[in-house]
Amino acid sequence: MTSARPFLDVSGLAKRFPTRGGGETTVFEQVDFTMDRGEFVCVIGHSGCGKSTILNILAGLDSASSGAVVMDGREISGPGLDRGVVFQNYSLLPWATALENVVFAIRARHRDWSRQQIRAHALSHLAKVGLSGGAEHRKPAELSGGMRQRVSIARAFAIEPRLLLLDEPFGALDALTRGTIQDELIRIWSDTDQSVFMITHDVDEAILLADRILLMTNGPRARIAESVVIDIPRPRARDTILHDPAFYAIRNHLVEFLTRRSRELAAGAAGAGTGAPRTVRFGRDGSAQGVDVVPFQRAAR
């Protein structure tokens, strides 16, 4: 069942930057969406629509020009350990080992824990992402790109945030490593009650991972136009999801939005409108339905 109040409520969000001539550029405006606890939401849109800026606002690393972000009934006004962030560039301390990077974050989150508790917690989360047997004692320069990203993910989960924010975390990885870490991310997330907000340019990745996909129009003055519900049952696997009747219908819908309608909506050709995005749901036979409200129900994992 859906609670009366969403876990995350983003309303009227806008970001404007001053220009040299004394005017201003609006990157996005009237961004409205909600997330429920335990939901995995991906956002897709072309470069320049402000996806990363929205994520930074959710993280408290940037501020909106207008609008509000409320999480668990409290407005976000700065960084906090109730949110964990994973960037594409890893953002690890270069002088510290993988273990020390995770320990550093846990120590900030659990100041009353003993050194033994912190170390055990860090080693447990590194093991969950496949980093043990000596790899945990290497510094970032001694790790591959995929291993560095595993450290980032372990660190983010280790502080047990209520909201995990992922900014294209797999964009720089090769396909095989990407698939492995996707599986590890889903496995860890499945055992928690954490909500995940993830930016990706990969349509297939979004369908594989998400409960819902938010589609943004092109910038400037971008907005979230659609919220596409992914009803494909979990657990999902790359080698079997292709055979689901809804997969190609959803994929074609997303690709068509990115190649045509994101531009048309941005230009006002199809009537941009304001307020909450239109919700789209696909039936088990792959047929699309436009609906006003789709209650979030956490699927069996």
From TrEMBL:
SUPFAM superfamilies assigned to the protein according to its UniProt record, in alphabetical order: P-loop containing nucleoside triphosphate hydrolases
InterPro entries attached to this UniProt entry: AAA+_ATPase, ABC_transporter-like_ATP-bd, ABC_transporter-like_CS, ABC_transporter_ATP-bind, NO3_transporter_ATP-bd-like, P-loop_NTPase
Key words of the record: ATP-binding, Cell membrane, Membrane, Nucleotide-binding, Transport
Gene Ontology CC entries for this record: plasma membrane
Membrane topology, from the record: Peripheral membrane protein
Family of the protein in this entry: Belongs to the ABC transporter superfamily.
NCBIfam families registered for this protein in UniProt: ntrCD
Protein name as annotated: Nitrate ABC transporter, ATPase subunits C and D
Lineage: Bacteria, Pseudomonadati, Pseudomonadota, Alphaproteobacteria, Geminicoccales
Gene: cmpD
